[in-house]
Specification:
By secondary structure, the chain is of the alpha+beta class. 36% of the residues lie in helices and 30% in strands. The protein contains four helices and five strands, in the order H-H-H-E-E-E-H-E-E. The chain has helices at residues 2-8, 18-25, 33-54, 110-128; strands spanning 61-71, 77-90, 93-102, 134-139, 144-149. The protein has a five-stranded mixed sheet.
């Protein structure tokens, strides 16, 4: 999140600044020192891999940690925060991707994450008037992404 926000604000994070950035966000108040060291090392490696694999696509970032609110009628309101939205030109058209980061593969059931991403797509549509083209789950433990093509169908009441 911090890397993406810094990029959007015009500041480019360099690879040698990642550890400093990580130190600002690491917080294990009740963990034993050896656990803190292990978790910090694991997080650092994950952030470095993510950075190396994705730095070239930071220019495609449209939103990072963008809040949405959807009124689904009947008193149902959904609030959320989309982790990352990218826009890139592909074959002369703009492709929009909504990305949800997970720290572990079992952080949330896969189907729940798909439902979450579909709500984000509705939120993106409400925010921009545009449809998302791709929904993506990015697993930070494995630095692996799972993408699916998406087409939003709006039904009028």
């Amino acid at each position: 999140m911090e890397i993406h926000r810094e990029f959007l604000s015009g500041k480019t994070i360099k690879r040698n600044e990642l550890n400093e950035l990580l130190e600002k966000h690491i917080n294990y108040p009740y963990a034993l020192p050896e656990i803190i060291k292990e978790m910090t090392s694991k997080a650092g490696k994950s952030v470095e891999i993510y950075f190396d694999d994705n730095e070239k696509s930071f220019s495609e970032i449209e939103f990072a940690e963008k809040e949405i609110q959807l009124d689904l009628d009947d008193g149902i309101i959904v609030n959320g925060k989309m982790d990352l939205i990218k826009r890139k030109k592909v074959d002369g058209t703009i492709e929009k991707t909504i990305i949800d980061f997970k720290s572990t593969e079992d952080a949330q059931a896969y189907n729940a994450t798909i439902d979450q991403l579909q709500l984000y797509a509705l939120g993106y549509y409400a925010l921009t008037g545009e449809n998302a083209d791709i929904l993506e789950i990015y697993n930070l433990d494995k630095n692996q992404k799972t993408e699916m093509n998406f087409q939003l169908k709006i039904c009028q009441r």
